Amino acid sequence: MIPLIQRFGIIRCLKKIILSLAILAAALAAAFLLRNGEAQRLLQQASSQPWGAAAFVAAYAAACVLFIPASILSFAAGALFGLVKGIFLVSIGATLGATAAFLTGRYLARDWVAKRVGADRRFAAFDEAMGKEGWRIVLLTRLAPIFPFVLLNYALGLTRVTLKEYVLATWVGILPGACVV
Questions:
Q1: Which end of the chain is more exposed for a tag (fewer CB within 10 A), N or C?
Q2: Dist. CA 177–CA 144, nearest whole Å
């Protein structure tokens, strides 16, 4: 029975349904809080607590991993924590989330994607370039807002860029955007 379930992807389907329901529940809770004006009060209280910054960083990182645009969190950071602390928290949250997505792409999805694009000469050339000048390419893609941040995190995990180069180039590359927002 188990091989049959795995073959047809029922477990994967159930995981997607559960994740979708969790996101829907969170969205409904957020809508209820926003409607009642409680969200602003809760966020202000949380930002004044010692755990508020850690919770914000964790939420930002989770958004990066779950393909949720975190731009609203970037705007909220300045209002809740002030300009300097907000920039710091956004850069840490975005870097942690990008790194988690990068590692997921590298270790959980690499074989699957390599089977599909491994024979493609363009991907092979891009992967080779990333092995030689990976940090520069990562930095440039972070500075250019035309590349989708969340998707790029996973895609760069499929290349030869080292984790150290990726993290440093990501952090440096997102600082200008964090300052603007």
A1: N
A2: 9
